[in-house]
Amino acid sequence: MAKELIKKPVFKSRAEMYKKPKWEKFKDSYKEFTTNIKRNFQKFLNKIHEKGSQKLTLMIVPHSEKRIINIQISNYIMFFFSLMLIVVVISSVLSISDNQANRRKLIFLETETKNNKELILEYKKAIEGFSRRFTSFKVDVSKVLKREEDTRIEKKLVEIGDEKLKGLPKELSELEKLKKELLTLENDIYRVGVFKSSYERLLKEIPSQYPLPMKAYLSSYFGYRRDPVYTWTREMHSGLDMVVVPGTPILAAANGVVKFAGWMGGYGWLVEIEHKYGFSTRYAHMMGFNSGIYPGATVNRGQVIGYVGSTGKSTGYHLHYEVRVGGQPVDPLPFTQMMQ
Fold this sequence. Notes:
Elements: H1 2-5, H2 14-17, H3 22-53, E1 55-60, E2 69-74, H4 75-145, H5 151-161, H6 170-205, E3 217-220, E4 223-226, E5 234-237, E6 240-243, E7 249-251, E8 256-263, E9 269-274, E10 279-289, E11 298-299, E12 304-308, E13 319-325, E14 328-330, H7 333-336
Antiparallel strand pairs: 1-2, 3-6, 4-5, 6-13, 7-12, 8-9, 8-11, 9-10, 10-12, 10-13, 13-14
Helix pairs in contact: 4-6, 5-6
């Protein structure tokens, strides 16, 4: 039993005895690597110190040659002065470059300032010219309307900015005044627009359209004349005789309703149109009527109602055109000139 309890010794080979763990190997390698780096860096520093410790000798020989002056300068000092020289040269170059850039910028700003001054002067002249034209326009509008300024608008203008004008440059004050005057004219221009719309509507409703598409030769005017057929008598001519080419379209002088379309004795083929405000127009000696022209039909200003002929009591192709107010004929000539 005693023999069995005794353990047998374990013998290792030489390779196993000298075998190191991986961590130990890494530590040894790292230590060797850092040692080599330190050694090489130290060698580099030693070389720099060796080179820097070397000295240059400057000999100053006077003309008298009595005494020669020797000056020894180490490479360290030479390197320091060289480095300082490089820094100074680079700084000087950068400074000169900045100065040139600043000079170019200054020249550009001076040119721009000059151009801006000239532009401001042009604006000033334009504002003054516009102010003169605007004042003239305001006077013209006032003459057309022939009325005093609206007190309500005037009060509003006073509230808008009289205080703003204090301390402002002359040009800005002019602009503020123009702004106020524009507000003053706003109501006037609105009234002119309303008047224009009313006037255009009125022209459509009264005989203002020339009854032919082109200018005609007027062979006989409104008033007393010698009868063209019975030449030994005088008669009252109640319209205008307008000579054009046969078949020329005849145009309605205004919006209205056809009162009569047919034969009427010496008038021949005739169309009579009733308009607003007691106006009516007659178109006589027609060759024929346009389609859609019959009593009760609605016509618009400028619509073709028939064609020039020579029917009835007529000595040639022409349009006999009448304008009547309250059934009584009046001179049509002023009405034919309203749209010219």
